[in-house]
Amino acid sequence: MYPMGDPYGDGAQPDMTEYKASEGEPLPNGEKVATEEQVVEAMRTVYDPEIPVNIYDLGLIYTNDIAENGNIDITMSLTAPGCPVAGEMPGMVARAVSGIEGTGVVEVKIVWEPEWTPELMSEDAKLALGMF
C-alpha cells in the first residue's frame, strides 16, 4: 500500500527492505553528550531531494533516542516506500548527526510502520509547501 498512491501505476508492492546506516565512534568516557536540540538541528540540514523541506519538519523522524554514552538511535520513515533515495537517506542522516560534537555511534533505521502521512509535517513545512 502506497501512502500517496501507486507511483508506478502498476499495482506492484514496494520492496520493504530494511534500510539502515551507522556512523561515528564511541565517545570517550566523561565527554559531554550532544543535546536533543543539537541533534534536531543536525537532522534539519538533511533534505529529501524531491521536496524542498528538511526531513525533520516533514515529520519523517519518528524517534531520536540519545543514550548517556552519546550513542544515538534514530528511526525514520520516508514519504513513500518507493522513494528513490531510500537506500541513501539513513546514511545522509547518520553523517549529519555524527558530525556534531558529543555524539557516539549514530544508528539510523527506516521503518514503514506507522506509515508516514502529511499530518506529521510541522506547520512550517505545510506553509512552505502551500498546504494551507
Task: Provide an overview of this structure.
- The chain is of the alpha+beta class and 132 residues long.
- It has a domain at 25-114: GMP Synthetase, Chain A, domain 3 (2-Layer Sandwich).
- It contains three helices and four strands; from the N terminus they run βαββαβα.
- It has a four-stranded mixed beta sheet, with helices on one face.
- The protein starts with 19 loop residues before the first strand and ends with a helix.
**What is the architecture of the domain at 25-114 at the second tier of CATH?**
2-Layer Sandwich
Strand neighbour order, sheet with most strands: 1-4-3-2
Q: What's the end-to-end separation, in Å?
A: 26 Å
The low-pLDDT segments are 1-15
Mean pLDDT: 88
Query: Please, what is the CATH homologous superfamily of the domain at 25-114?
Result: Fe-S cluster assembly (FSCA)
- The total count of strands amounts to 4
**CATH class membership of the domain at 25-114:** Alpha Beta
Helical residue percent? 10-25%
Radius of gyration: 16 Å
Q: What form results from the Cα inertia axes?
A: globular
Total helical segments: 3
**CATH topology name of the domain at 25-114:** GMP Synthetase, Chain A, domain 3
* Beta fraction: 15-25%
